[in-house]
Design brief:
Oligomer: single chain
Distance between the termini: 111 Å
Radius of gyration: 40 Å
Strand order of the largest sheet: 10-11-9-12-13-14
Number of strands: 19
Number of helices: 13
Helix content: 25-40%
Length: about 500
């Protein structure tokens, strides 16, 4: 099986990295066993980025490796340590790459060195319990999970960024012409469809340097899929000028330069988008006697159409200087009026199900379907094995107004509630007014141990207060023993004094 060397259209499966999970941790040290929550956040996942690289001219690498994945974010840790960021995956693409989605929608047109497209955004890292702590939730016993990164199928199509495009019938001499005016060395042979991929050549005419591309031979019906040219017509969309290369020495019956020009122009018109490009006509192969005679016959007719016509010979070099300088003139004029494109960074933001940060509720066969950016993100962040985390989710949805909206639409206890895309949704039984996980805590998110006073602290404070009213001769140890025995009523030295027996002995 032959290995292709030029690939201009590939399908690519890209996966951004998943965000790391936050961690639930409590700070502990000597004499301070409950120092508060100190769980760190998870790191964000790496993104998949397409970047225009002038040194890349083909999509061959992605033809061989069509699946690419960025790095995952690291998990958080105790001691307020956040997880590491996932490594971004930068994919170099040629200048002029068009990125389309699975449904054929154009996502971006990457033109200009350094232009970037964040095609798959890395998932957010989950918050640790330190970040979730608040005045009402002083000791969260849970953390949020990291979100998955974007995962999608894209299609890359290369439209060669050339200044001049050569079009014409097969064997018209396009490859020979580009070899004669540049250092490009395409395959040249005396049979149709020798050129199977576009060829690029760099041409210098005076002070202007420009690129020329030839399109594999066009035939009648190319715009509808006949021949090879229809596969590569997109490569001339970015050209500043088109050059019709017409064979004046063809031996095929019924062919003449005027008809050949009309056929190619008809195909370009049916393809669309090229009507405003300046045209030049190169009557090739005038080194052949019959070719020169035919060129002399049709040249006035073509010039009468307002076209600039150049009799040329790729074999002898005749007329090539005039042709290249005419190309350079058009290219220079186009560059003078074209704005300089600066490198840009494009970030794709998928549209939410409700078109904003709100939510929608609809009755479906599966139950009450809740869609929206926030509810779906909160569900992805929730650890459903932790009752407190589920309760936190219930509170967030309640504050957003999801429960009120369900009640307004007629939902009753026990109805099925589906949050998210039906293919990957979370299903609940609707229980209005019930805070999940609240039965385990008086106030969700609080730890009573942080509110309680430790016995040792209370004893020291009681001794300190009692020292102000101690009897004459009492030491701190005596006050401590008296407090430990509890409140009693007796006089020192009386029969009720528990220390009297010790004193007598």
């Amino acid at each position: 099986m032959a290995v292709p060397t030029f690939v201009d259209r590939v399908s690519l499966h890209v996966s951004a990295g998943r965000g790391g999970n936050g961690v639930a941790s409590v700070h502990r040290e000597k004499f301070k066993p409950l120092g508060g929550p100190d769980g760190g956040n998870g790191g964000p996942g790496g993104s998949v980025i397409l970047r225009v690289d002038p040194d890349v001219t083909t999509l061959l690498d992605y033809h061989h490796s069509p699946r690419r994945r960025a790095g995952h974010g690291g998990h958080g840790a105790g001691g307020h340590r956040n997880g590491a960021h996932g490594a971004d995956l930068v994919l170099p693409v040629p200048d002029g790459t068009v990125v389309t989605g699975a449904r054929g929608e154009v996502l971006a047109d990457l033109v200009g060195p350094g232009t970037e497209l964040v095609v798959a955004q890395g998932g957010r890292g989950g918050l640790g319990n330190a970040a979730l702590a608040s005045a009402k939730r002083k000791a969260p016993g849970f953390a949020l999970l990291g979100e998955p990164g974007d995962e999608l199928e894209i299609r890359l199509e290369l439209k060669v960024v050339a200044d001049v495009g050569l079009v014409g019938f097969p064997s018209a001499g396009k490859s020979s012409l580009i070899a004669a005016i540049s250092r490009a060395r395409p395959k040249v042979a005396d049979y149709p469809f020798t050129t199977l991929v576009p060829n690029l050549g760099v041409v210098t005419a005076g002070d202007t340097t420009f690129t020329v591309a030839d399109v594999p031979g066009l035939i009648e019906g190319a715009s509808e899929g006949r021949g090879l040219g229809h596969e590569f017509l997109r490569h001339v969309e970015r050209c500043a000028a088109l050059v019709h290369v017409i064979d004046t020495a063809t031996i095929e019956p019924g062919r003449n330069p005027v008809d050949d020009l009309d056929v190619i122009e008809n195909e370009l018109s049916r393809y669309g988008g090229l009507e405003d490009r300046p045209r030049l006509v190169a009557l090739n192969k005038v080194d052949v006697p019959d070719g020169r005679d035919l060129a002399d016959i049709v040249i006035d007719d073509l010039r009468g159409r307002g076209l600039r016509v150049f009799p040329v010979s790729a074999a002898s070099g005749e007329g090539l200087r005039e042709l290249t300088f005419a190309m350079a003139e058009i290219v220079a004029a186009a560059r003078a009026t074209k704005e300089v494109a600066e490198a840009t960074r494009i970030v794709l933001r998928p549209a939410s199900a409700d078109g904003g940060d709100g939510f929608t509720v609809a009755s479906t066969e599966l139950g009450w379907e809740v869609r929206g950016t926030k509810p779906e993100r909160w569900v992805r962040q929730t650890d459903f094995s932790n009752d407190e985390a589920v309760g936190f989710l219930a509170d967030r949805l309640n504050r957003l107004g999801v429960e009120a909206r369900l009640l307004e639409l007629g939902a009753v206890e026990g109805d099925t509630v589906v949050i998210g895309d039906p293919d990957n949704a979370v299903v609940f039984d609707f229980k209005p007014g019930i805070d999940a996980g609240a039965e385990n805590l008086a106030r969700r998110g609080e730890d009573a141990r942080f509110e309680e006073q430790r016995p040792a602290v209370g004893r020291r404070r009681a001794i300190q207060e009692a020292m102000a009213d101690r009897a004459e001769g009492e030491e701190r140890a005596d006050v401590a023993r008296r407090i430990d025995r509890g409140p009693t009523s007796y006089e020192i030295g009386s029969e009720d004094d528990p220390d009297r027996a010790d004193d007598e002995t």
